[in-house]
Amino acid sequence: MRVTNLLELQKALETEGKEIEILNSISSPDTIKVKKGTKLIGRGEKIFLSFINTEGISLEGDNEIKNISIQTKPENRAIYLNSQDENLGTINIEDTTITGVVQLMTRGSNKNLKLNIKNMDIVSADARRFSEKPQKYGVNVYQGALTIYNYNSNKDSDIEVSIEGVSIGRENAPAIGSGIFISGFNDDGGKVLVKKLVTEDIFSNGMIPFGQPNLITGGIFILNGAYAEEIISNGTVETYGVNDMGLDVWGKVSRWIVNDKIKSYGPSGIGFVNFGEVEYFETNDSIETYGLGARGFNQYDGTIKEAYFDSIKTVGDGSIGMQFSKPVGKIVIKKDVTTKGSSGETLVKGVIMNLFADGISVKEGGEIEELIVKGNIETNGSDVVSYHLDGGFVKSFSIDGEIEAKGKGAKTVVIENGGKTDTENLKKYID
Q1: R_g (Cα) of the chain, nearest Å
Q2: 229 touches 251 (CB < 8 A)
Q3: Dihedral sign computed on CA atoms, order 85, 89, 95, 101
Q4: 3-state DSSP call for residue 428?
Q5: pLDDT tens readout for residues 377-394
Q6: What gap in Å lies between CA 245 and CA 253, rounded to an integer?
Q7: What does the DSSP assignment read for 358-396?
Q8: DSSP element (H, E) containing 343
Q9: What DSSP string runs through 259-283?
Q10: Cα dist from 290 to 235, 314, 339, whole Å
Q11: For the whole prediction, is pTM greater than 0.90?
Q12: Distance CA 209, CA 36 (A)
């Protein structure tokens, strides 16, 4: 069925199971409710659906949206689920440009959903108003411009996701809240299986007040109850605000390849923080953070089996390059770890703490099977330590470059509080 105006579209939507072809751009004063089995296909070079004061397109399951630009107010949902059905079937969303939040969230009555997204560009969104925020490690997490959330406590409920080509925000004009947010109900409830996630540029800003200890966001956030088989980040990931993580994992990831820069510009931001289980992680460009207490990489819970970092650079007091508090496997830094800063306040597990901008820090409980640095470890700040074993253990350590501490009272290597490391490559620093 072909439609050219709002009245024709409303009439076409009265029955389910249709393919509706939209030939002209349409403005609507009300939400468009798309019944189960119905497809909305834009037929034309630019088909634009705008929603003047309301939320956008409501889906019931087995739907398709293709070749349409959708605009709501940034704080409203441009696309969302609203169905009581147990089986939501397959939803396909392809070739869309969007202003507003895309929230694909299943609830207690929904048990199964298969979701495919291809070529989605979310220009602007503000996801802060939604009350469903996961809580763990002393913090809550804002939803994202793209939110996929299994909010069903039933452990047998599941969402299966495949995403190829999603971009969010613009440089210096980020989406508000998280960027991509994928979460199950919790560790024991409903699950999300991400078969593939391929991202382009992601720009986000949580707009969190400075000093707020229990609220965070992520540019790409894989939360508890979510398992990603493969993630490929082809574009940059930039976060701009307080407590904004670039990449964050509470769930599980089998393989994550990052092909562009990860940057954080706000206080207590972290380039990549892992609380979950990651099997393989690799960056082919730098992780850079700029801000008070903004760290490069943190392993605070869970583990990572094998990780290859191109380089890490932090600028700011309290901005540690890499910190480990849990056992991990093989860690390789292909180039340098560089920090610039001294001591400063930062957020750690929901608590504001004072840290020094050490280069690599291994705390009590932290254990590294193999640590390989192919470049330098360099700090530029007073009283910091470039390679700091503070109760932690590094079984095998090698460095091709130098360990440098370029600040008043700074030290190259400190081993204390029962810390242990392979010292074969450290003799000239500790003898």
Answers
A1: 23
A2: no
A3: positive
A4: helix
A5: 999 999 999 999 999 999
A6: 17
A7: -SEEEETT-EEEEEEESS-EEEESTT-EEEEEEB-EESS
A8: strand 343-348
A9: -S-EEE-STT-EEEEESSEEEEEEE
A10: 19, 6, 10
A11: yes
A12: 41
From CA 117, how far away is CA 182, in angstroms rounded?
13
Residue type, 117: I
Q: Tell me what pLDDT residue 424 has.
A: 84
- Side chain identity, residue 147: T
Phi, psi of 59 (to 5 degrees): -110, 145
CA-nearest of 88, 123, 109, 117 to 194 is 117
Q: Which residues contact 378 (CB under 8 A, 6 or more apart)?
A: 336, 337, 338, 339, 359, 386, 402, 403, 404, 405, 406
**What one-character DSSP code corresponds to residue 131?**
S
Secondary structure (DSSP) of 302-338: SEEEEEEES-EEEESTT--SEEE-SEEEEEEESS-EE
Distance CA 4, CA 310 (A): 52
Give yes or no for a contact between 339 and 320, defined as CB atoms under 8 angstroms apart: yes
| Contact between residue 225 and residue 186 where contact means Cβ atoms under 8 Å apart | yes
Say yes or no to pLDDT of 153 above 60: yes
**Residue that the structure tokens 């207590």 belong to:** 268
- Give residue 264's identity as a one-letter amino acid code: S
What is the distance of C-alpha 354 from the center of its chain?
25
Question: 65 - beta bridge partners?
Answer: 40, 93
Tens of pLDDT along 71-98?
A: 999 999 999 999 999 899 999 999 999 9
d(CA 430, CA 170): 47
d(CA 79, CA 70): 8
5-62 pLDDT tens trace: 999 999 999 877 789 999 999 999 999 999 999 999 999 888 999 999 999 999 999 9
SS percent in the chain: helix, strand, coil, step 5: 5, 55, 40
Tokens of 108: 């207690």
Q: Which residues, 6+ apart, have CB-to-CB distance to 336 below 8 Å?
A: 311, 312, 313, 375, 376, 377, 378, 401
> How far from chain centre, in Å, is Cα 316?
22
Give the C-alpha separation, 79 to 33, whole Å: 10
Number of other residues whose CB lies within 10 A of the CB of residue 388: 25
Lookup: tokens for 188: 């024991």
Alpha-carbon torsion angle 27, 30, 31, 32, nearest 10: -60
Bridge-partner residues for 410, per DSSP? none
